[in-house]
Automatic annotation (TrEMBL):
<keyword id="KW-1003">Cell membrane</keyword>
<feature type="region of interest" description="Disordered">
    <location>
        <begin position="78"/>
        <end position="106"/>
    </location>
</feature>
<keyword id="KW-0472">Membrane</keyword>
<dbReference type="InterPro" id="IPR010445">
    <property type="entry name" value="LapA_dom"/>
</dbReference>
<dbReference type="Pfam" id="PF06305">
    <property type="entry name" value="LapA_dom"/>
</dbReference>
<keyword id="KW-1133">Transmembrane helix</keyword>
<keyword id="KW-0812">Transmembrane</keyword>
<protein>
    <submittedName>
        <fullName>Lipopolysaccharide assembly protein LapA domain-containing protein</fullName>
    </submittedName>
</protein>
<feature type="domain" description="Lipopolysaccharide assembly protein A">
    <location>
        <begin position="25"/>
        <end position="89"/>
    </location>
</feature>
<feature type="transmembrane region" description="Helical">
    <location>
        <begin position="46"/>
        <end position="68"/>
    </location>
</feature>
<feature type="compositionally biased region" description="Basic and acidic residues">
    <location>
        <begin position="82"/>
        <end position="97"/>
    </location>
</feature>
Length: 124
């Protein structure tokens, strides 16, 4: 609901301004593509020139931002790959530990008496 209100309050007035700009600036203007001779040019309505320039600016700005964030996307891919590898390794270690413990969970078989693995935090 809030999104719809925002759409109405922002997009609707901007659309009206764009329509009024297009209607008021229908006259043709010459756009020369050759700055020296001036022989290569076209005539387009002014509103098309303005809107085309805005669209081109948005596209070029988006490409510049996308190119500037390449290193962050590369680092994110690397971090995802490292996390996936760490999860896989942790799963393998869990399976190995489960295979090493007794069915009743008393410890690792084959460990000599008196040499059991203890928690050092609780040892005083």
């Amino acid at each position: 609901m809030l999104r719809r209100i925002g759409l109405i309050l922002i997009v609707l007035p901007l659309s009206l301004v764009a329509i009024l700009l297009a209607v008021a600036n229908r006259q043709a203007v010459a756009v020369n593509l050759d700055p020296f001779a001036g022989s290569y040019g076209i005539e387009v309505p002014l509103f098309l020139l303005v809107f085309g320039s805005l669209i081109l600016g948005v596209v070029l700005g988006g490409v510049a931002v996308w190119a500037g964030q390449l290193r962050y996307r590369r680092a994110a891919r690397r971090a995802r790959r490292d996390a996936r590898d760490a999860e896989r390794e942790a799963g393998e270690l869990r399976e190995r530990m489960a295979a090493m413990t007794d069915p009743d969970g008393r410890g690792v078989p084959g460990v000599a008496a008196g040499y059991a693995i203890t928690d050092r935090r609780n040892a005083a």
